[in-house]
Design brief:
Layout (H helix, E strand, L loop, with lengths): L17 E10 L2 H11 L3 E9 L2 E7 L6 E6 L9 E6 L2 H10 L9 E3 L2 E7 L5 E7 L6
Parallel strand pairs: 1-4, 5-8
Antiparallel strand pairs: 1-5, 2-3, 3-4, 6-7, 7-8
Length: about 140
Amino acid sequence: MYYKNIPIWGKKLIFYLMRIKYVTIPSGNIAEEETFFVKFLGFKRKGELELWPNVSCKLLSNSDSDINIAIIPNRYTLNQKAIIIFNTENCLKQYHEITKNGVVFNHKPYYVSAGMIADFTDKEGNQFILLEERSYIED
């Protein structure tokens, strides 16, 4: 959750293998928010994704970007200013590299239906999630 007595600004975070893939939109009425993005902003429904245990997010996308909108229930953002989700090809490797820089994670990496995740919070209350997406469906 916090840094090990090391000013974060003096450390080089290793995000070179990660890219932002999801932007979260907190909502008290997910269906209404989804309708707004689809009807008024031209987004397409992409399905649902479990980013936390037992918490489904509605996924939306537009054709202009690789970044997706994840509509999340308001109650999961009470203590955060922003939730930034970085897509990574190797969650464990990124976790260890970032930990070496002095970042303390909220949890060790763990599995959800979307894949493997690990998260940390900066001193301003912003939450950062590393997500290694995995498909558990056999072709």
